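Reply to dn_fold:

You asked what the input looked like. This is it:
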Amino acid sequence: MISQASIEQIVAQVLDDVGELGVQEQNAAARSAAAEESVRREQAEHVNMIKKTSAMTEFVGTALGDTIGLVIANVDNELLKMMELDQKFRSIGILGSRTGAGPHIMAADEAVKATNTEIIKIELARDTKGGAGHGSLILFGGTDVSDVKRAIEVALGELERTFGDVYSNDAGHIELQYSARASYALEKAFGSPLGKACGVIVGAPAAIGVLMADVAVKSANVETVAFSSPAKGTSFSNEVILIVSGDAGAVRQAVISARDVGRNLLEALSGPTHSVTNKPYI
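and this is what came back:
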């Protein structure tokens, strides 16, 4: 026969076990809520960035990645010379960011398709606000300020889409871009053949990028257009960048294969990754 003391001991043990389970569930719920709140804050920051305005006539708008769009209706001749730009471009559009080069180059590519402008300069800064990647400076040239302003508007609007396949966590980021028909921005930035499909594959830290590049070219019949690493072709960023071209289906498959491998490796380093916008487009 079980004694009253034994019964009390069993009840106490059960209560202790239930209490521990409750604490574990509370801790798990707290961690999940913290992660969701972090994502919400990041998305809110993106929305706030897009809504920022200025009364200056040169100001066009802002977007993800600490991006600003500006226009100069009549550029000073001496400045054009110092910037080594063609004198025929009286008006220029300026697209600059702290974070993200691939999304901006892809957005600029869509902008030149839609407007009577040219890409006259693309520079990648060592930036990402202290991270492993780049910022960017992209200049559009035109003879009419309305054309370059429209190009900047199109590019700013495209960034919500082109940031969709950028994934990050505390350890780094991966970045994927795809175009079924490359135009002048992709040609100027990477040498991508005009009119052919183009894929941009970026892995940071660079070690992950090397494996992503290998998987990409093995997974589909694509042409390798360019390869950049920390000491060659980047602004000494901790990235590997691979540009591929070819048939649209093959290029898309190469990009998707690289994305799957990159996310897996990045998550092995520092936990879950998520799309910057939660809207992947590839």
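The chain is about 45% helix and 25% strand.
Hope that clears it up.
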